[in-house]
Amino acid sequence: MTARAQPRMLNEVKKNPRVSARDLKKSLAHANISVDESTIRKTLNKNGVHGRTPRRKPLLSRKNIAARLKFAKEHLDVPQHDWQNILWTDE
Length: 91
Known about the structure:
The structure is a single chain. The chain contains five helices and no strands. By secondary structure, the chain is mainly α. The model has no long low-confidence stretch (mean pLDDT about 85).
């Protein structure tokens, strides 16, 4: 990693924290700088930028809240043994 490529890469990561190492490699290739993806990851880790994705929060708009309430009211009288046949995502 050249001294010229490192600040360029860090600026790009600061602009868009979700950019991947593959995308950074492509953008550096446009500037005639060839760097491997693992080198990019190591350089970012040394500079305190780690490859963690932020937690996704569920989108609870008024529409989604109303849809959940409608589902709950419709399935209020469903017997317990019917719910045992459903595969839940947290199991």
